[in-house]
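Catalogue entry: protein

Sequence with per-residue tokens
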Amino acid sequence: MATIKLSDNGQILTLPDEIAGDDERLRNALKPFYPELANAEIRRETKDDVLTVTVVKRAGPKGAGILPALLTAPEQLNPALALAWQLEHREITAGLELTELVALQPAIEQAIEAGEAEVKQIEITLRILKKALPVTGSGTPHGL
């Protein structure tokens, strides 16, 4: 049986040598319990016929999941702004009566709610991006 040392939390596990001796099998055994070790560095040392494996978590590339999500996100206007511009255009071109505005009240409230929710989501995303530490890139961004 091999001793597995998880360096990030100091936990020690025991696994059969046939699992501990193979990177893929070891990753598959640990993945359900420690998904953050999917790209970990694995070091092996044999002393007195006992295999000791040290698993060191490696940080993934910064923004690995963010950039593709941003690039594939649909372009859209904030619903509140879109409705405000439509109403302004309608007022300028055809005029708006109070009765029309009263009838549009549910749509206006819905657009405001959706717009506020979108603003909150953008604020959360911006906070996450601001907290992310800078990392030197390995290539030149497109367009530069």
Observations:
- The longest strand covers residues 41-47.
- The longest helix spans residues 105-131.
